[in-house]
Amino acid sequence: MASSPCGGGNFDCGLEIQTRSVEQTLIPLVSQITTLINHKDKLKKTEKTLRAIQRVGQAVSVAVGRFVAVGEAIAAENEDLKDEMGLACFEARRAGTAIAQLTDVSSLEQCEGDGRSTVFSDRTGMVKAARMLLSSVTKVLVLADCIVIKQIISSRNKVLVTLEQLERVSTFQEFVQIFSQFGNEMVEFAHLTGDRQNDLKDEKKRARMAAARAVLEKCTMMLLTASKTCLRHPDCESARINKEAVFQRMRLALEQVIEIVTDTRSGGEAKALPVSIYAGIKDFKVKVEGLRDSLYCVSCEAVAAQLEALMEKTEDFTDSAYTSHEQRETIIQLCQITRQETKQLINTWRHAQQLLKAKEATDEMELSILKTCQSVGDLRRELHRVAVGRATELLKLHSDHLVLQALKASGGDGNLEAVADYAGTLTEHKEQLVETCRLLCHISGTEPLEITCIHAEETFRVIGPQIISAAQTLALHPTSKIAKENLDVFCEAWESQLCDMAILLKEINDVFEGRRGDKKPYLSLPRPGKHLKTVKAAKLDAEEQTTIAKLGLELCLLTSDVDSEVERWDEQDHEMVRLCQIISSMAYSMYLFTRGEGLLKTTLDLFHQAEVLSDQGLQLCHILHTLSTQLLDEDRILILSETEKLSAACQQLQVCAKTPVQGKSAIFQKVDSSIQNTKGILTVVVYLLPICNKLIRKCKSERSCLASPQHWREKQQSTTVSEETLNGFGVKSLEQHMANLTFLESK
C-alpha cells in the first residue's frame, strides 16, 4: 500500500498506484509540492513576489475547486465509492482553501502587521496543507481509476453471460444472433483491456495481460467454427470435445484478466513464477560478488544450497531426450567446474573469516570470486546456446507445416487410420515444442519474457489436441465444409504460435546480447466481421521479390533511425515512445516481407499490417495535437505542420491497404505503394522524434518556473467544468484539471 508520495501528511490514501496514467498525472504536482516545502526560509519579500504568491494561491484554490467538482460528480454516479470519494474531495477542498489563505499576502504591511499566519510565518502549515492536497488528490485519482476496473469487470460479466448462451444454443439461427452480440461485447472488452494493458506499471502484469488477450483473440475465431461444427454434427464426440476445450480456455483467460486488473487470484495467494536458471544465476552472482564488501552478508551454507538448487534445474537440459550427447556432456562438465570453483571460494572465505582483522575479501578470495562468477557465466552461455539452438532447429523443421497439411488431406479423404498416424507425429512435435519453451523460460533473461514462454508452452500444449480432435471430426465427416474450415482455423492458430515463438526467440537473444529486449508488444484487437471470408492471399514471385527488396532495405534503415531516436528519450514510458516503437516494429516486419522472411507470409498479411500501422500513426497524430496545445506559436506551428504530413501519409496508407485489387500486376503495385507510404510515415516520425523530445523537456523545465498572470488566466479559462466534462468519468476526466494544481517555486 502506498501513502502520500510526499512521505507523510494527515491523509493517507491507503491505495497503491498501479497505472501510468495516475502516476504521470501526479508527477507535476509532486514536483511542485517538493519544491514548495523545500523553499528558502528567508524568501525576499518584495511587492512583486507577494503579488505572485497571492495569484498562485488563488489560482490553486480555484483549480482545486474545479477538480473537486469532477470528483464529486463521479461520486454521485458511483454509490459504492461515494463515501471515500466524498471524503477525499472534502480534504482536497480544505487543503486548497488553506493554501489560498496562507498565500493571501498582497502587501508588505499586511504581511508583517496583522499577525495572521502566512506562507512566511507558518511554513509548517504550508507543508501540512500541501501534503494534504497531494494525498487527497491521489486518492481521488486512484478512486477514479477504480471506475475503469469496474468497467472491465462489467464488460467481462456481459461476455460470460453471452458465452454461456452460446454454449447452450441448438440452432444455427439462434447461434448467429447471439454470436453477433458476443462479437460486439468482445470488441468492447478488447479495447478496455488493451488500454489497461498499456497503462499498467508492472511489466509482469502487462505480459500476463498480453498473454490472456492473445488467447481471447485467437479463441474467438476458434469458438465460431467449433460451435458451428458442433451444430452441424451434434452427435460427433470429437466435435463436442473440440468445442468444450475452446470454451474452457476462454473462461480461464477471462478470469486471468480480472485477476490482473483487480490484483487478486480466485484461488487465494498469487501464484509465483518458478525461479528460472537465469534468475538463479543472477542472484547467485550478486551474493558471491557481495562478499567483496562484507564477509558476513550471507552464510557459506546458503551459497552452497543455492548452487545445488541451480545444478538441479540444469537437469531439465541434461535429462531431455532431445539434448545431444555432446551438449549433455558439456553442461555436466561446466556444472562440475562451477561446483569446484564454489567449493574453493567457500574454503578461502572461511579462512578469511578466521583472520581477526579481516572484514573484506582477501586477494586469494578475490581470485576465487572471479573464477566462480566466470564458471557460472560459462554455464549460462552454454545453456542459452543449447535452448536457442533447439528452438531455431524446431522452427526450421516446422516451417513447411507438412504434418498439418497431411492431417488436412487425411481428414478430407475420410482416412481415420492416417489421421491417427499423423496425430501421433503432431503429438511428438507438440512435446518437443513444449519442452523447448520450458528451456527458453530458463534462459529468457526477464520476467515478462518468462511469462511469454509459459504462455507459448501452454498454447502448444492445448492447441495440439484440439487440432487432432478437429481432424478426427473432418475424417468422420469428410464432405463437411464447416468441419474443414474448423480444422483450418486450429492449424492457423498453431502456425501463428510458431511465428510468435520466432519473435520470442529474437527478444531473448536481444536480452542476452545486451540489446533492448523489452519492446512493447502489439496485439491487434478483434474486429466485427473478422470471421468473414477474405480475399485470397497471394505471395510475391522471385522477380517481384527482387524488385521490392531495394525499397524494403530503405524501410529497414528508417526503422533503425526511429529506434535510435527513441533510445535518446529520457521517458521510455512516454506514450509517443510506445507508439513509435510499435510503428517501427510493424514496419520492420514489412521489411522482412520484402526479403521473403518474417511473420508476414502473404500480401494479405502485408496489407493488414499496413492498415494497423496507419491506425497507430493516426493515434500518434492525436498525441502530437495534444502536445501542440502546450507550445508557443512558432513551435506549435511546426508540430502542427508535421502532424498534418503524418496524418496525410497515414490516411493514404489506409486507403491503399483497404482498396481491393485483382490481378498479379495490381497486387504488386499495391505492395509497392504500401511500402512507399510506410516509408513516408517513418520519415516524418524520424524528423519529429528529436524535436518532440526537446520540446517536452522544455515544457517540463518551464513548469518549474513562476507562471505569468496571463498564463494562469488562460489555464483558468480552459478548465471550466462543462456537462461534457462531468459525463466523462474516470482518470482522463480529471487529468486536464491536474494541470492547474501547480505551486509557486521559490527563486
From TrEMBL:
GO terms for cellular component: cytoplasm. The keyword GTP-binding does not apply. One of its GO terms (molecular function) is cadherin binding. Keywords: Cytoplasm. One of its GO terms (biological process) is cell adhesion. Gene3D superfamilies: Alpha-catenin/vinculin-like. It is found in: Cytoplasm. The keyword Cytoplasm applies. Its main location: cytoplasm. It comes from the Eukaryota. InterPro entries: Alpha-catenin/vinculin-like_sf, Alpha_catenin, CTNNAL1, Vinculin/catenin. PANTHER family: ALPHA-CATULIN. Belongs to the vinculin/alpha-catenin family. This is Alpha-catulin. It comes from Cyprinus carpio carpio. The lineage of its organism: Eukaryota, Metazoa, Chordata, Craniata, Vertebrata.
